[in-house]
Automatic annotation (TrEMBL):
Highest taxon of the lineage: Bacteria
All residue ranges annotated as the Transketolase-like pyrimidine-binding domain in the record: 1-165
UniProt xrefs under CDD domains: TPP_PYR_DXS_TK_like (cd07033)
GO molecular function, one term: magnesium ion binding
InterPro entries: PDH/Transketolase, THDP-binding, Transketo_C/PFOR_II, Transketolase-like_Pyr-bd
UniProt protein name: Transketolase
């Protein structure tokens, strides 16, 4: 199932089954929520295309003790409304679940206004925020239910790019173990990483929970000083947490992600992924340069 449709179904089910859950959205995905909105108009609120209001309404509901799910495209939810996220949720110490779709380049045809490779980096400036990057419908369902049942502020990134296999547990999953470098795949880049590392004697770690960072597992599997970090958003976003996790361990770090130069044509999501070297061929070329062709 499409991850966005799964999100909509799970959110509707949470409203139906938990009186403390509210769903606030800004037109986007409204086509999925007609029935639940008619049944629960006091807890399913469409604010229209008013994204700053969207976040403030969610924060206000949180102040009353509700657990809000706040949703629109990530470019509008995080970038356009960041001051409201910072003050309404962060400064007031209230929790909620912010769900952004469309990142990084899911809506490439919408142009730069709808592209959001910097959302995780921006959310990472807030203290204590939990960041999730589920990579298929199964993970979306599990992650959203877990975030709503939890406390604190959570950002859930729902995108069209998917991995074939779901890993629903928290922390790192050891997908492949080797004697050479450790390659960290965050979110929906795992399939490309596995293709790029085929035949290499490397360890591959995967996580859909980007924050908090599972330093213990990383340290436990490290077999060589080379570490490669692959993220489907702004390059280097998680480099500081990797460096902190290995602060007393000699290591070399290669960070791969969306580069800072902009591809100034709409194209498709796949065009942008290739342009930033995040397809299997691009990742393999970067590994060759970092590790040496054919090396582990």
């Amino acid at each position: 199932m499409n991850p966005r449709i799964q999100f909509a179904r799970t959110a509707a089910d949470l409203v139906e089954t938990d009186l403390s859950v509210a769903l606030v959205y800004a037109e986007i995905s409204g086509q999925f929520w007609g029935d639940v909105e008619r049944r629960h108009p006091d807890r399913v609120i469409n604010v229209g295309i008013r994204e700053q209001l969207l976040v403030n309404v969610g924060a206000g509901l949180a102040l009353t003790g509700m657990r809000p799910i706040v949703h629109t495209f990530g470019s509008f939810l995080v970038e356009r409304s960041f001051e409201q996220v910072k003050l309404g949720f962060g400064h007031q110490d209230v929790g909620g679940v912010l769900v952004g779709s469309g990142g990084s380049f899911d809506i490439a045809s919408g142009g730069r206004t709808h592209q959001v490779p910097g959302d995780v980096a921006l959310m990472d400036t807030l203290p204590g925020v939990h960041v999730h990057a589920p990579s298929n419908s199964r993970e979306v369902d599990v992650v959203l239910r877990r975030a709503v049942a939890s406390d604190g502020l959570h950002y859930v990134r729902v995108v069209g790019q998917t991995n074939a296999v779901a890993h629903a547990g928290e922390g790192f999953h050891v997908v492949r173990r080797g004697a050479g470098a450790t390659v960290i795949a965050l979110g929906p880049v795992l399939d490309e990483v596995l293709a790029a590392t085929e035949g290499r004697d490397v360890t591959v770690l995967y996580a859909h929970g980007v924050r908090p960072f599972d330093a213990r597992t990383l340290r436990s599997v490290l077999a060589a000083p080379e570490v490669v970090l692959v993220e489907p958003w702004l390059v280097g976003t998680s480099a500081h947490v990797v460096a902190d996790a290995l602060r007393d361990v000699p290591h070399r770090l290669l960070a791969l992600g969306v580069r800072r130069e902009e591809l100034r044509r709409y194209g498709t999501a796949e065009d942008h992924v290739r342009a930033h070297g995040l397809d299997a061929a691009g990742i393999a070329r970067s590994l060759d340069g970092f590790l040496g062709a054919g090396a582990a």
